[in-house]
Design brief:
- It is a single chain.
- The chain is built from 31 helices and six strands.
- By secondary structure, it is mainly alpha-helical.
- The chain has a six-stranded mixed sheet with strand order 2-1-3-4-5-6, with helices on both faces.
- Helix 16 packs parallel to helix 18, helix 18 runs parallel beside helix 20 and helix 19 runs antiparallel to helix 20.
- It is elongated, with a radius of gyration of 32 Å.
- Pfam families: DYW_deaminase (PF14432), E_motif (PF20431), PPR (PF01535), PPR_2 (PF13041).
- GO terms for molecular function: RNA binding; zinc ion binding.
- InterPro entries: DYW_dom (IPR032867), E_motif (IPR046848), PPR_At4g14850-like_plant (IPR046960), PPR_rpt (IPR002885), TPR-like_helical_dom_sf (IPR011990).
- This is DYW domain-containing protein.
């Protein structure tokens, strides 16, 4: 047998000669031997071969031997049929493993079904394994999730075997990947009819499916109805809340989970994602320390966990800790390099981002991908590096074989427009191989306002945005930008018309929301918020701030409040109640030590007036303020900002 196992591939085409029982030594007292059929001896030889098979050509040779293992090529005896079906199950498993050859695996299943139809073999009633193996392989593949759903539909139409508790997790995984909500809901209905919905594996898959499709209320309903939850159940629902932007709810669930289970690395990755979304640096540092205590030496070598920590530190405003994580990683993949490049970019350190990209190219086995160039182009955009941006944009396809997507065109258009090269940006838009979306036109509209390109150009860009958004739904962004263009030109009548149009369309400006972490708790503020328990102290500090910055030259920019009434007093009052100012005031009264950094996170882009105000607050109070807005970080210190007023 050993000689057969090490024989060259072509030797597999010749069936081996089996030794007869009479060749045993006569002087050896042998125990009773149960006679074996030829098919059983074939099985003993072929199963080890299948277990060690790793390539399709060799698998096909073994498959041919299975077909030749019977004189008729189709087994007739019940034992032979069982051996035949067992070997076919192993062949199907190997063919479908790691998406080796899904087409070949499908043909194997088709052959089995044909043999069963002809009566040559009789598949057992519990033969869902064959379907499950193939559905799982397609669901886990890169581009065949549609085929997984089609196989499930075919399984139902075939009717010879019903789905079981192993079938539904695979099908629901494919539906989640495809965001196929109607199909997944039908699969859910099938699971309920078969009485399998309460099964923990099926229920976990349903929670994941609905959370992935954005139906968190249904995911919660299933999770709440589970009588037997596993750690996976908690991980899935927590990750769903993080993906849905409900970070505080995710933290509450994490605390509740700890009463029943010890968090694993998947739990901690979701927790890190929640900290990242909230900008809760101290909570993220606690999560890091918790992982080191519970997981010990497993954390430093886990690339996925390290990437999550690196990304969290960068997005929570501590680029120093992010760089330390990156430098100490024993191994890095392309996601590690991308996280560091994007981290430098969002903090406005364009040169460091480009240098990291250069170092990445010296790393063996790591090649830039689409996300890498989004990071590089974003860095050039934040740094105003037009020439470097052009070079990297051109080299994407010519040097690295990465075709530009609409996100890359968007970065390039924004880079050119913000640099005042509106005509060149429009030329790039006109030559794009894909249709420009509302985001690109909105970038041009924003650039028109910042570069003072003129009311007529701004109106033209706004019309483009409205045309694109009418296909889906109108948002307030373009209206606000257009009103700012009119306000900058002192055309207040047009500003009023924009407000009236928004009112008629039922469009409301997205409210500004700023958060700050103090003592491990995250405090959120809306514009003009009075809900906080310390509101009186906050507004008292706000008045002190205004007095001090007034002494160092602050003057309100009323054009930044175009959506309020025409009276200057009303605009001035609107500006002073912006959410980031309330958060800064709370940070000043909550500082445990003089000069401690204040970290603010805002859902919208910082307006020009608040940007100037924050610079002067750092000068008047001697503090450092770090603000993360919708697009980037601003590090304010000594009356200056890291963006150099270019954002």
């Amino acid at each position: 047998m050993s000689a057969f196992l090490v024989a060259p591939a072509n030797a597999l085409l010749r069936p081996p000669q089996f030794p007869s029982c009479s060749s045993a030594r006569a002087d050896v007292v042998a125990s009773p031997v149960i006679p074996q059929t030829e098919e059983q001896r074939w099985r003993q030889l072929l199963v080890p071969l299948l277990a060690g098979c790793r390539d399709i050509p060799r698998l096909k040779q073994i498959h041919a031997l299975v077909l030749r293992s019977s004189t008729t090529c189709i087994p007739s005896a019940a034992s032979s049929a069982r051996d035949f079906i067992f070997l076919y199950s192993r062949i199907l498993h190997v063919a479908a493993s790691d998406a080796a050859d899904l087409h070949y695996a499908t043909r194997v299943l088709n052959h089995l079904l044909l043999l069963d139809d002809s009566g040559a073999v009789h598949l057992p009633t519990a033969s869902s394994f064959f379907w499950n193996t193939l559905i799982r392989a397609h669901a886990r593949s890169s581009h065949h999730q549609h085929a997984a759903v089609d196989l499930y539909r075919r399984m139902l139409l075939d009717g010879r075997v019903p789905p079981d508790k192993y079938t539904f997790p695979f099908v629901l995984r494919a539906c989640a990947y495809l965001f196929a909500l109607p199909e997944g809901e039908q699969v859910h209905g099938h699971a309920v009819k078969l009485g399998l919905a309460p099964d923990v594996y099926v229920a976990n898959s349903l929670v994941h499916f609905y959370a992935t499709c954005g139906r968190l209320e249904l995911a919660c309903r299933i999770f709440d109805g589970m009588s037997n939850r596993s750690l996976v159940s908690w991980n899935v629902i927590i990750d769903g809340f993080v993906a849905g932007g409900r970070y505080e709810d995710a933290l509450d669930l994490f605390r509740e989970m700890q009463r029943e289970f010890t968090p694993d690395t998947f739990s901690m990755q979701s927790l890190i994602g929640a900290c990242e979304g909230l900008g809760a640096l101290s909570l993220g540092m606690w999560a890091h320390a918790f992982m080191l205590r519970r997981c010990g030496g497993d954390v430093p070598g886990d690339v996925l966990v390290n990437n999550s920590l690196l990304d969290m530190y960068a997005k929570c405003g501590s680029l120093v800790l992010a760089r330390q994580m990156f430098d100490r990683m024993p191994s890095r993949d392309v996601a590690s390099w991308n996280a560091m490049i994007l981290g430098f970019a969002m903090h406005g350190l364009a040169k460091e981002s480009i240098q990291t990209f250069a170092s990445m190219q010296e790393e063996d086995g790591v090649k830039p991908n689409e996300i890498t160039f989004i990071g590089i182009l974003s860095a050039c955009n934040h740094g105003g590096l037009v020439s470097e941006g052009r070079t990297h944009f051109t080299s994407m396809a010519s040097v690295y074989g990465v075709g530009p997507r609409i996100e890359h065109y968007g970065c390039m258009v924004d880079l050119l427009a913000r640099a005042g090269l509106v005509d060149e940006a429009l030329d790039l838009v006109s030559t794009m191989p894909c249709k420009p979306d509302a985001v690109i036109w909105r970038s041009l509209l924003d650039a028109c306002w910042k570069s003072k390109a003129g009311v007529e150009v701004g109106e033209s860009m706004a019309r483009r945005v409205f045309e694109m958004e009418e296909e889906e739904s109108l948002t307030s962004g373009a209206f606000v930008l257009l009103s700012r263009i009119y306000a900058s030109a002192n055309r207040w009548n047009e500003v009023g018309l924009v407000r009236k149009l928004m009112s008629e369309q039922g469009i409301r400006k997205v409210p500004g929301c700023s958060s700050i972490e103090v003592g491990g708790a995250v405090h959120e503020f809306l514009a003009g918020d009075t809900r906080h328990p310390q509101s009186e102290k906050i507004y008292a500090m706000l008045r002190v701030m205004e007095e001090r910055v007034g002494l160092v030259g602050y003057a309100a920019d009323l054009s930044q409040a175009p959506m309020v009434a025409e009276h200057d007093d009303e605009r001035r009052r609107s500006l002073r109640l912006h959410s980031e100012r309330l958060a800064i005031a709370f940070g000043l009264i909550s500082a445990r030590q003089p000069g401690a950094s204040i970290r603010i996170f805002k859902n919208l882009r910082v307006c020009r007036d608040c940007h100037e105000m924050t610079k002067l607050v750092t000068l008047a109070f001697g503090v450092e303020i770090i603000v993360r807005d919708r697009t980037r970080f601003h590090h304010f210190k000594d009356g200056l900002c890291s963006c150099a007023d270019y954002w």
